[in-house]
Design brief:
Blueprint (H helix, E strand, L loop, with lengths): L2 E2 L17 E2 L1 H14 L25 H14 L10 E6 L5 E8 L6 E8 L2
Antiparallel strand pairs: 1-2, 3-4, 4-5
Organism: Endosaccharibacter trunci
Protein name: Phage tail protein
């Protein structure tokens, strides 16, 4: 099933003819993963437990292991990501508390390994 195409922090995409763009498959999964990881817990009123809140960790004392555990836990909650094999998460926490992550996971629809990167800068 197709979703409206939307990257976190941006507007909906408008396609040819002025219609809202749709996204499906692995691209939709990437958008869902980024939305889940970058949404603050409690900010989505229909699902208060939704979101990892990674931007809220910027400037906090957080280890690579803590951030990696948060990401892995959230990835298991995303229906479009397979739980086996387990997602592989590589996290870097900068000296100012900025967080970068590269996440490899298997997409549920295709079974193919996909990679998504994110960075929460200071």
């Amino acid at each position: 099933m197709a979703d409206l195409s939307h990257l976190v922090g941006g507007d909906l995409f408008v396609g040819p003819g002025g219609r809202l763009s749709l996204v499906a498959g692995s691209e939709a999964t990437q958008q869902r993963v980024l939305r889940r990881l970058l949404t603050s817990r409690g900010s989505y009123i229909w699902q208060p437990a939704y979101g990892a809140g990674l931007p809220g960790l910027v400037g906090q004392v957080a280890s690579q292991q803590q951030v990696s555990a948060i990401i892995k836990t959230q990835m298991t909650l995303e229906p479009s990501v397979l739980s086996s094999p387990e997602p592989v998460v590589r996290v870097t926490v900068g000296t100012l508390g900025d967080i970068s992550a590269v996440i490899s996971y298997s997409e549920a629809e295709t079974g193919l390994t996909e990679t998504v990167s994110l960075s929460t800068g200071v």
